[in-house]
Amino acid sequence: MTPPLSLYVHLPWCLSKCPYCDFNSHAADNPPLDRYVAALLADLQNEARRAAGRAVDTIFLGGGTPSLFPPAAIGRLLEAVDAQFALPGNAEVTMEANPGTVEFGAPAGYRAAGVNRLSLGAQSFDDKSLRRLGRIHSSDDIRRAVSAAASAGFDNINLDLMHGLPGQSVDTALADIEAALDLEPAHVSWYQLTLEPNTVFHARPPEDLPDDDTLHDIQDQGGQRLAEAGLMQYEVSAWSAPGRRCRHNLNYWLFGDYLAVGAGAHGKISGPDGVARYRKPAHPLQYMKSMEAGGPEDALALVAEADLPFEFMLNALRLVDGFRETDFVARTGLAADRLSDCMRGPRDRGLVERVDPDRWRPTPLGWRFLNDLQAEFLRRQ
Fold first, then answer.
1. N or C end of the chain: smaller count of CB under 10 Å?
2. How many Cβ atoms sit within 10 Å of the Cβ of residue 182?
């Protein structure tokens, strides 16, 4: 069975680069938006040929800061997607947006353009923390953005929140959650700050990061509060109201296929030769030039059969409900016996359990030591 197919579109510019961010984003006051959209439209035609008639079920416009692009540009892009892929009526179309008043000015325009799920990069409701994170918005900007989006007809709004911030205590982390819950989001992505290589924070780590005990208490008490509010955890960093899980991310986590459009975008596609990955040129200028010259020859890199269990488990084990054995077989092309062999060691160590004949999931111990559990599936040399 062919996996579900999603589309990721990367819009790479921000007004400034945050010190914790390791995404392919570039600070620019006046980026060449029209030229970039033209490159995206050419890229979409190439990706439609790669899809070979397969339907796209979800779209994610990520960045960077997609809300730097005006609604008219987003509308052109989504019209082209619909022309190439004939989107179903229930397609999930997510756009990331910065709550800053400089960029966020037309939620009704984005809704009219076809965006039906908005993901706001709130990060914190503490203005001091926002400044230390390099964010250009304030806590009041977040509230205004949510109000404007709701008034424009958005009923599926995600708030991105970070914890483990410099100087953060359990109480201030819980205050962020309370402020987010006051806005009644359909979804909260609540994840811990990590010091990624090639970032300012990695080169010069803040001296007042919370210790491990504080981080544990933040995660424990914060997760409990989100659940009390009716947002159920379904992934390590994701909580949602009933029926509001992010379908696009679920497709990633369950080893579905996804097309890649935009500078540095990564794609994954399944075919008769196996599972392959590819990526687009990372720098926006290089990307635009390549599209203007007819598009890059994206080299498909086949995933080695021995690496498929780890590739699958890396994300599937992040899910609270785990995964179905039938999905593992269908999306890796490996036999069920191969899965049983892979699971024997982790199960013997109490890290995974079989909850019914077709479903595996991490145990509480495996959930606690998720990195160790995922490493169990690395190919042994």
1. C
2. 12
E strand spans, the chain: 5-11, 13-14, 26-27, 58-63, 92-97, 117-123, 157-163, 187-192, 232-235, 238-240, 257-261, 266-271, 274-279, 301-302, 323-324, 352-356, 359-362
95 is written with which tokens?
């756009």
* Rg of the chain (C-alpha set): 21
Q: Is the dihedral of CA 167, 168, 172, 177 positive or negative?
A: positive
Dig out the tokens for 126 from the structure.
Answer: 């503490």
Measured in whole angstroms, how far is the alpha carbon of residue 24 from the centre of its chain? Answer: 13
Torsion of CA 138, 205, 374, 324, to 10 degrees: 0
Q: Please give the pLDDT value at position 103.
A: 53
Amino acid occupying residue 329: V
Residue 236, both tokens: 């390590």
DSSP codes, 135-195? -S--HHHHHHHHHHHHHTT---EEEEEEES-TT--HHHHHHHHHHHHHT--SEEEEEE---
Weakly modelled stretches of the chain, pLDDT under 50? 102, 380-381
8 A C-beta contact, residue 45 and residue 259 = no
Q: CA 332 to CA 313: how far, in whole Å? A: 11
Tens of pLDDT, residues 140-157: 999 999 999 999 999 999
> CA 88, CA 75: separation in Å to the nearest integer?
17
